[in-house]
Amino acid sequence: MWRGIIFVGVIMAAGTLFVLDASLPGGFVHGSGDVPYAQTMAFTTLMLFQIFNVFNARSDDRSAFAHLFTNRWLWAAVAASVTLQVLVVYVPFLQSAFGTTPLSGRDWLVCVAVATSVLWLREASKAMRRSPLPR
């Protein structure tokens, strides 16, 4: 259990910092945004990491895709969370309160692509754990 938690935490930290770095000029990956844009990208990526990880957290051993649609409350919570994030990014008074800036469709795709890594990497670790091959 603890290995899984640490593994997921490292993935989320690395991915969020990568997006933050890639959204600013200079750094390891050259970006062209300003600080509020980079913060919005990092905030959105971290939120999406949590959304994808909620499916991993249902079991330490079973695939996140097992019985994926059996919990309607979970899907309602995911929909509500994503809706609230969209509101924070696009509604002016919420932008002011949270210090966010609007993101483009491409920006959302980058955030989603990075955030899904927690799902795929955790799925791979679960599959290796279930494998009958010696480790």
Essential attributes:
single chain, 135 residues, mainly alpha, 70% helix, flat
* Gyration radius over CA: 17 Å
* Helix proportion range: 55-70%
Find the count of extended strands (DSSP E, 2+ residues): 0
Strand-pairing-aware structural class: mainly alpha
Order of helices and strands: HHHHHH
pLDDT averaged residue by residue: 90
Shape: flat
Strand proportion, as a percent range, falls in under 5%
Number of helices: 6
Main β sheet profile = none
Q: Oligomerization state of this entry? A: single chain
The unreliable regions are none
What distance lies between the first and last C-alpha atoms, to the nearest angstrom?
18 Å
Give the topology, please.
Blueprint: H1 2-22, H2 35-56, H3 72-90, H4 92-98, H5 105-115, H6 117-130
Helix pairs in contact: 1-2, 1-5, 1-6, 2-3, 2-5, 2-6, 3-4
Task: Summarize, please.
By secondary structure, the chain is mainly alpha-helical. It has helices at 2-22, 35-56, 72-90, 92-98, 105-115, 117-130.
Textual characterization of the structure:
By secondary structure, this protein is mainly α. 70% of the residues lie in helices and 0% in strands. The two termini are 18 Å apart. The mean pLDDT is 90.
